[in-house]
Design brief:
The complex is a heterotrimer of chains A (about 350), B (about 290) and C (about 240). Chain A has one domain. By secondary structure, chain A is mainly alpha-helical. By secondary structure, chain B is mainly alpha-helical. Chain B has one domain. A two-stranded antiparallel ribbon of chain B has the order 1-2. In chain C, the strands form two sheets. Chain C has a six-stranded mixed beta sheet with strand order 6-7-8-3-9-10, sandwiched between helices. The radius of gyration of chain C is 18 Å and the shape is globular. The chains are: A mainly alpha (about 350), B mainly alpha (about 290), C alpha/beta (about 240).
Chain lengths: ~350, ~290, ~240
Amino acid sequence: MKISLETAGLLAMAAIGVVLIFVLPAVAEVFLLFDLTVFIVMSILALSLALVWGFGGILCFGQSAFFGLGAYTYAVAVINFGESTIPIVLAILLPVILAIVLGYFMFWGRVSDVYLAVITLAVSLIFYYLVGASAGSDYKIGKALLGGYNGMPSVPPINVPGYPKSEIVYGDLYILAASVLMLVYFALRWFLASDFGHVVVSIRENESRAALLGYDTRIYKLTVFAIGGGIAGIAGTLFTAWGAYVSPTVFSMVFTAQIIIWVLVGGLGTLLGAIVGCMLIQFATTWLGETKLADINLILGAVFVLLVLFIPKGIVPMFRDFLGPLIRGKTSAEPRSNNN
Amino acid sequence: MDLALVVLIQVLYAIASLALVSVGLAIIFGMMGVINFAHGEFLMMGGYAFVLSVGAGVNFWIAMLVIAPVTVGVIGIIIERLIIRHLYGRIMETVLATWGLSLFLIGLAATVLGYHQKGVAPPLGKVVIGTYREGGYTFFVIGITIVLLLMVYAGLKYTKFGLIARGTMQNADMSSALGASVNKIYAVTFGVGAALSGLAGAILAPIAGVLPDIGVTYVIKAFITVIGGGAVALSGTVAAAILFGAVNQTVTFLSRPVVGEVALLVVAIVLLRLLPNGITGKYFRKSL
Amino acid sequence: MAQDVLLQTHDLTMRFGGVTAVNHVNFSMNVGELRCLRGPNGAGKSTFFKCLVGQLAPTTGHITLNGHEITGAEPHEIARQGVAIKTQVPSLFDGLSAAENLRLAARRQSDRPTTKAKVEEILELTGLTGQANKVVGQLPHGQRQWLELGVVMASDPDLMLLDEPTAGMTHQEVVQTAELIRRISQGRSLIVVEHDMQFIRMIADKVTVFHQGTILMEDTMENVMQNPQVRDVYLGKQAGSNS
């Protein structure tokens, strides 16, 4: 049976979804599900950067800004509201607004490439410094103390909308996170297959030609940037709910670097790659941390260098190139992995 | 007024240290177009080379001005030959590889040297200014930065190597056709950039100390300065260092260090928006 | 037949640093004209085109299209007013397929069924039907040039600007290109930058000669060819000309 590469990818993802949402909760210990939850949350974050960078061609080095803003907004709002529904909405809305403002500033100013990367990184660091300096009882929003570098502990969990006592934690939170991951993935696939999505990819390929065809590239980039910000905000919300805690580390340079590495390792220009790259590195980091085999940085660093020298396109494209001849590929709508 | 003088000195120090940590990166990024995310680790290794040498009994100044830059310079050349040279022109691969290298070097330092602070006290005592006292070392840092920048300028402009290096960065094929060994030039230029960073790390070590991850605190400021400076390596970096350093220190003086850091970042953002190619994208375009 | 003025520039000047690439140019063409721009390399033709499509904002001067001022407008705004360009250095979506390139060009103004039909038609016209799903970056040079002509046509423009459409082509390909351009320029206006005289004879009515950023002369092909000044410019005899 001949199927297109695209369909193969969708089927693979659907299979993964079934395993994650239905199979694992039935067989795995709650502890494992708890650990997996944060990996899944980070995968959602990875998808946001994969969209913005891999498909939108926007080199954002500060995706952590949107993640962190979502994380903190949820924390502050849920402590004040006592119920999680509105906080979740706010935690997605605020990063989207930040993305629109920052995006307008950059895209209408024709800022691009490495300069855009530095600006986005700087924005994340500004949050890092400002929130990090918020220790003490003077710094609070409503009832929520920001806590400075110590962060905000005891953040209430997500509850079923309308039922504040009905908490979504542990196994239930895992299922929620996994469902959100699947939802985001398929929504993004649909988006990228749409006419709007096709134009977005064309802008990544050749922005000047897209403009010469009559497309206002700024609007397309802004839209993608805003969607990416929103998805990162969702991930931030789930992150805070998962650990009941948030600290300025979410804005740090080390963290934003990890997001970039997940996407690059998995393969820039793919969605599945972002998830695979993220999961792999999260597993590796955790395993290394537990077995204390060697310093994490030492091993990770060596792996990255070797990866770049020998598998530069990333893991998923490597498999795709390998399997491609076995499965007849459809190349017209499938964007090429692009290492710019 | 004594206070004004002290503030001025601190502003000069902020500018100098910013220029100091950036100049090596300016050579590597500005001249070679290589985004080196292991830049902070060059500073770290220079710091350790200095501190460990002093600990082993080597003269303070020799450890700082000779051992540190030479050590890091040689390491730089090795890194260039082993890794960087396979990735020229591929920006994303260079980013990822040098980031991996950065992690590796931090991990290596942590494994071999551990996380306890090794310090060397700054020499040169205190200078009295009215009712204030400023470390004599502060003046040294300012002074040596100026000397260093002048030396780099002279090196680029007046030496044969400087000329060939500049030519190669502009047009490698032409340079090669004229008989230059392009590979050697890339290696040496990268080594020089590394050596300058090692020297910077050593110079700042008595004040900032050395830890395996100290590079992380330097790298973002260095990048913002170099990119804000624009394509012309030296004058761009100096111009950006003056702007950012002055803003950072002045705001810190008027408020708190955190606000000073934020102010630097905000100014950088505004600058890059107004001058999308950095300062030397528009001004001082024909300088060195 | 309408003798409406389609495109006009008034005192158009483009300066970069120390170089004046386009120097107070007053240009005019009517609807339905097929015009050729000639001139040695560096005469300012491509820069002139870039000003027309909005990739460069002129230093001084005005450009009007159908009576509307388009000086310094954004490229997408000018494109929407019916201008399409095939650039000197081919500009396509190299990572996408030939069909996808055409689809993107056509889709903005047409609905899905019309777009599909248009894409098929243009693939046929440019001889690329067999290459529809091939990634553009892998197409040979001649086919990429034709695809770009197809992309220009797919956006259904009133004015087509073609910057050296036969660069790097064999003689046979040049003839085919001329035929293609004649067909796609029916009912439209066209400015072609070209050096190949045979090619120009097959396409254009009127020739505008550029030299050092200004218009040297404007006339029919025959008169331009016989003009001694133009010959000198091309042979580099004029004082201060670029060779």
